[in-house]
């Protein structure tokens, strides 16, 4: 009978000590992961901004193709005056897509 009365407070003390250690370990882990998470978020932001600006290179290649085709088209048929207006339209659309990509890169870097 006396052993049971002594064992109950002892077991409660052991359980309380174990939960206190577990809570302090969880608190330390939360503080550690917040710093790592900030680093991972920052790295993801830079990777996303870099990936978004790759479209600018595609825009440059598209503009080069358009004006290369314009030169070839004028060489084959110099009488086509409509060809230049189509080339300017495609140039504007390609340049706009490049600017949209660049804008998205800046938005990822500075707005988020």
UniProtKB/TrEMBL annotation:
<dbReference type="InterPro" id="IPR000454">
    <property type="entry name" value="ATP_synth_F0_csu"/>
</dbReference>
<keyword id="KW-0813">Transport</keyword>
<dbReference type="GO" id="GO:0015078">
    <property type="term" value="F:proton transmembrane transporter activity"/>
</dbReference>
<keyword id="KW-0446">Lipid-binding</keyword>
<keyword id="KW-0496">Mitochondrion</keyword>
<dbReference type="InterPro" id="IPR035921">
    <property type="entry name" value="F/V-ATP_Csub_sf"/>
</dbReference>
<dbReference type="InterPro" id="IPR002379">
    <property type="entry name" value="ATPase_proteolipid_c-like_dom"/>
</dbReference>
<keyword id="KW-0812">Transmembrane</keyword>
<dbReference type="InterPro" id="IPR038662">
    <property type="entry name" value="ATP_synth_F0_csu_sf"/>
</dbReference>
<feature type="transmembrane region" description="Helical">
    <location>
        <begin position="46"/>
        <end position="72"/>
    </location>
</feature>
<keyword id="KW-0472">Membrane</keyword>
<dbReference type="GO" id="GO:0015986">
    <property type="term" value="P:proton motive force-driven ATP synthesis"/>
</dbReference>
<dbReference type="Pfam" id="PF00137">
    <property type="entry name" value="ATP-synt_C"/>
</dbReference>
<feature type="domain" description="V-ATPase proteolipid subunit C-like">
    <location>
        <begin position="47"/>
        <end position="108"/>
    </location>
</feature>
<keyword id="KW-0138">CF(0)</keyword>
<dbReference type="GO" id="GO:0008289">
    <property type="term" value="F:lipid binding"/>
</dbReference>
<feature type="transmembrane region" description="Helical">
    <location>
        <begin position="84"/>
        <end position="111"/>
    </location>
</feature>
<dbReference type="GO" id="GO:0031966">
    <property type="term" value="C:mitochondrial membrane"/>
</dbReference>
<keyword id="KW-1133">Transmembrane helix</keyword>
<keyword id="KW-0406">Ion transport</keyword>
<dbReference type="GO" id="GO:0045259">
    <property type="term" value="C:proton-transporting ATP synthase complex"/>
</dbReference>
<keyword id="KW-0375">Hydrogen ion transport</keyword>
<protein>
    <recommendedName>
        <fullName>ATPase protein 9</fullName>
    </recommendedName>
</protein>
<comment type="similarity">
    <text>Belongs to the ATPase C chain family.</text>
</comment>
<dbReference type="GO" id="GO:0033177">
    <property type="term" value="C:proton-transporting two-sector ATPase complex, proton-transporting domain"/>
</dbReference>
């Amino acid at each position: 009978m006396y052993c049971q009365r002594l064992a109950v407070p002892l077991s409660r003390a052991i359980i309380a000590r174990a939960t206190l250690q577990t809570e302090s370990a969880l608190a330390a882990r939360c503080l550690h992961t917040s710093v790592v998470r900030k680093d991972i978020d920052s790295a993801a932001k830079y990777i996303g901004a870099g990936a978004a600006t790759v479209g600018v290179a595609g825009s440059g290649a598209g503009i080069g193709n358009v004006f290369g085709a314009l030169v070839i088209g004028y060489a084959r048929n110099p009488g086509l005056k409509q060809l230049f207006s189509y080339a300017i339209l495609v140039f504007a659309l390609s340049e706009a897509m490049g600017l949209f990509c660049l804008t998205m890169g800046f938005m990822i870097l500075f707005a988020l």
